[in-house]
Amino acid sequence: MIHHVGPMLVTALLASLGAKPATDLQSLDKRDKLYDVFVKGEDVWIVGYPGRILRSTDGGKSFAIAPVRSKEAFFAIDFADAQNGLIVGRAGLALRTTDGGKSWSPVKTEVEDPLFDVDVVNAKTAFAVGHFNTILHTADGGVTWTRQSFELPPDAEEEPGLNAVCFVDEQRGWIAGEFGTILHTEDAGTTWQSQQSGVSTSLYDIHFENSESGMAVGSQGTVLKTVDGGKTWTKTDTAVKEHLFALHVSSDGHLRAVGQEAVFVDLPAGGEKVGRVLTGIFTWLDGVHFFNAQEGIAIGGRGSIVHTTDGGRTWKQLSGK
Question: Residue 16 — pLDDT band, cuts 50, 70, 90?
């Protein structure tokens, strides 16, 4: 996943996302890796490697593949609104759009470590996180970036990789990473404080619905919950052994997560019985979104996009080989 970017980095990127038909999904194969999915209304965006940007304007029923001249890994995508969005990826890569994704422009982040996640709070403000304790902040829509930092615990043997970031407004946000790391800020990242997650395993994704209710997932089936803004975290016994790489939490607290061995985990709000389903493909899944209680998509390795219409009990493969 982690490679140094050569001089042929992203040089321009998109002409029109409608330029290729949805049947081009058939071109996705075992070399492709899909890392993140963003959904807003009927708009669905997927990014990955090599230089993959896919868009659906009909709620995932069909996709167009953008003709991107890049072989880099795009790890995460997020939008502030219909026009303003950011992509981050390998070796400090960042791209921005101000025209709804019709075109993307590379911007300098001044870092060379991979950026694994980005949260676009509004058209001006965004945060990105990545390898070796990297935290970046922009206040001008991604044109320029500044580093932020936090003090490592005295017993820390190395800097943790930071895998996910989530803000509920311009001031309050959380970061999850290796060694059970959870960080919290109340001042837009001017200062970051460690929270006690209660685990030492890697955390790969985190989401807060509001300033109090949050969830995180990670290796060895770890699922954490908080109802007090992260002051205390509770580990949920899911009996899941696979690493969980991504989550989606609905407004009522219903968690769906995906991960290693293409596993899908369903944890309804209120702590009812955990559902665990192997989706039937031979790879990992690294992104998931549910449009409603029954319909959802997940994305991952080998160019795989899978779709469910029965709440995740069964899945149909839309792409990948």
Answer: very low
Output the DSSP codes for 186-238: SSTTSS-EEE--S--S-EEEEEESSSS-EEEEEGGG-EEEESSTTSS-EE---
The pTM for the full model equals 0.91
| Predicted pLDDT of residue 150 | 87
| Residue 102 pLDDT greater than 80, yes or no | yes
**How do strand 255-259 and strand 234-235 relate by DSSP bridges?**
unpaired
Q: Identify which of 131, 86, 126, 122 has the alpha carbon closest to the alpha carbon of residue 105.
A: 86
Are residues 294 and 278 in contact, defined by beta-carbon separation less than 8 angstroms?
no
b/e 96-113 (16+ beta carbons within 10 angstroms → b):
bbeeebebbebbebebeb
> What would you report as the CA-atom Rg of the chain, rounded to the nearest whole angstrom?
18
Nearest to 116 by CA among 137, 94, 98, 142: 94
Tell me which amino acid residue 67 is: P
Amino acid, res. 272: E
Sheet holding 244-249, edge to edge: 244-249, 255-259, 263-267, 275-278
Contact 247, 288 (CB under 8 A): yes
Contact between 48 and 7 under an 8 Å Cβ cutoff? The reply is no
Q: How confident is the model at residue 235 (pLDDT cuts 50, 70, 90)?
A: very high
Which domains does the chain carry?
A: 22-258 (2.120.10.30)
